[in-house]
Write the structure tokens for this entry.
Amino acid sequence: MKVSFFQSLRFRLIASVVFIEIIMLSIMVWNNVESIYQTHADRLNDTAHSILWQFSSAAGSYMAEVDYAGLQERAQSLMQHNEISYIIVLNTYNKPILQLGGKFKHISKKTDTYPAEGLDNTFDISKNITLSGLHLGKVLMGFSLQQMSDSIHQARDRSVSIAATEVILSIIVTIILGLGLTRNLKFLADAARRVGDGFYDTALDISRKDEVGMTAQAFNRMVADIAERTQKINESESSVRL
């Protein structure tokens, strides 16, 4: 009887390994991407608030001296940071006295507390400008999430590529192991069929030192025992006839 490929042990072995690999590697990729996202988000959050605190502290002195040119020069140097999208400085009447970058539609927006809240691909934060307890205005800054997003996508693609390579290698190794196992099982099935047809001189030539080899040795001993008993029965029947 011929067994179809989809009913064979080989197929079930390959399918089981691939299924488990895909599940485990999917969990690994998801966990890896989440970890990378958290790392980048924490890094951006710390960097953004550190820059905002330093600039707002310096802005208080510039605004107290009405040195708007110095304030703008300080802000322009900050704009060299590749993640800063805009800098806006408001006076005590919430009127902008400095605007760099962006389209300035963020003034009326509620600021974010964490990069994950930046639905417009910008992490918007703000801080009041104070000097000796006196409120002088407010700083609004936007940090682009594009760099973080690109890093996460690259890490995800790299993880998926590694996972796909591992699945392919697992399939190849499983096929090689499966071929060896099913080939020996086929030899055993063919030999058992020959014994069933009365050919008691059948023997398996498998000299492996594993479970398959042990099964072949046990089979050969069983066939030898059957052959011996059959011969004795035939001899007894011959003696009775005589």
User: Anything to note?
Assistant: The radius of gyration is 38 Å.
